[in-house]
UniProtKB/TrEMBL annotation:
SMART domains: Aamy. Residues 20-39 are annotated as: Disordered. It comes from Gillisia hiemivivida. Keywords: Lyase. The keyword Membrane does not apply. Residues 40-376 form the Glycosyl hydrolase family 13 catalytic domain. The keyword Lyase applies. This is Alpha-amlyase. It holds the Pfam family Alpha-amylase. The lineage of its organism: Bacteria, Pseudomonadati, Bacteroidota, Flavobacteriia, Flavobacteriales. InterPro entries: GH, GH13_cat_dom, Glyco_hydro_b. One of its GO terms (biological process) is carbohydrate metabolic process. Coiled coil: none annotated. One of its GO terms (molecular function) is lyase activity.
Amino acid sequence: MIKKMALAFCMVAVMASCKDENKEKRDSETPNEEQKVSIEDSDLENAVIYEANIRQYSPEGTFNAFTQDIPKLKELGVKVIWVMPVYPISMKNRKATGGKMVSEIEDEKEREKYLGSYYAIADYTKVNPEFGTIEDFQNMVDVAHENGMFVIMDWVANHTGWDHPWIEQHPEYYTQNEAGEIVDPLNPETGESWGWTDTADLNYDNKELWTAMTKEMKYWVENHGIDGFRADVAGEVPTEFWKQAVSAIKEVKPVFMLAESEKKDLFHDAFDMGYNWEGHHIMNEMAQGKKTVAAWDEYMTKIDTLYQKDDFLMNFITNHDENSWNGTVNERMGDAGEAMLALSYTLPGMPLIYSGQEYDMDHRLLFFEKDSIPKTKGKVWPLMVKFGELKNTNSALAGGKEAAAYTRLKTTKDDQVLAFSRGSGDDMLIYVANLTKAPVKFKMELDGKFQDYMSSGEVELEKDMELEFKPWEYKILINN
């Protein structure tokens, strides 16, 4: 639902007074029962998820700067905020841009600008002081809850930073080489390092580690009321660990679990949603002319047979990894970007917005250094407002455990034109797009009167009608 600007300004104005109230609520640190917010499966059906990169979201790079903008995210239909790791970052073996270690840089001022990887964690139960205090973090969670949003934390169970207390206190928690030395994470297929040399690999053969890690996760749910976790490289950690951890956490309250993985067994009693990595890569390749719509159809048929009915995926055209390491949306998708964005919202699953994407960000955010996203609304913001409202309110776009049907619609140019319907009967939506860089004429097996959602005009289709779409042109049609 689009909120008027006056309301957004009011929300910012009242946040200061709310903060004092929230602090009083937090004096005991553990939220009392009536204040607890619980996420349910029904909340996920028509949700949009936002990936918050606290360091780069604002010039300040703080919880408070991000919290001020939480009411604005309601305009985009955001229901879930995934906060990238907020924990203290290890100094030992800290990486710099270009693959160097910070310790190799002689100039002291030059060394200071490298803040390290969010994923090299020094303590699972504290916050990075660069972002603010634990009270600031709690206020962020509270403001999100007050605005009808849920907060999930990025959890890195596969490895820690080299400064983590476990390195000294519990070296048995870590993978060690023949000489008894702790090693960085290794690729299980090759036995070679992934290159994440700023982190130390955890060894899940040790069941005492399971207990310790689960306790650290429960801390945030019990004491700060968070609503779930996004699990980094979830498939590299034993599925059985996740099952017992999630079971223990759900004794506190329901949580939403997102896996950075497509591994099928993770969905059994552990995770609710996974990454649509394969679909994302096919989108990139279609945008670059390397694959046709036929590849997309093969993929959709495949996942329909591989996953359980209540499994669902997160759809995206960018995220922190893609942006920093593989390029901006414009670099990877060019003129196809808008059609792919629309596709990510209309597919079964949940669409992702990454910090800065809503502001037409067209640069790769630095990963180990301070950077900042743009804050000027351009072409993408109003698109996301419309897509978000449609996702939130149209039952044909239900995409969670009770996802509305996805039905491929036949056209005369199926290798160039992607057309499908979502839902059925009174609640039906149609996405149709020319996913090539050339104009295309085609016919589609569909007739009836529809509303063109993006233009609000009326469209009447007949099965023998020839349609002509420009390169990367798309339409979202809803039944009247």
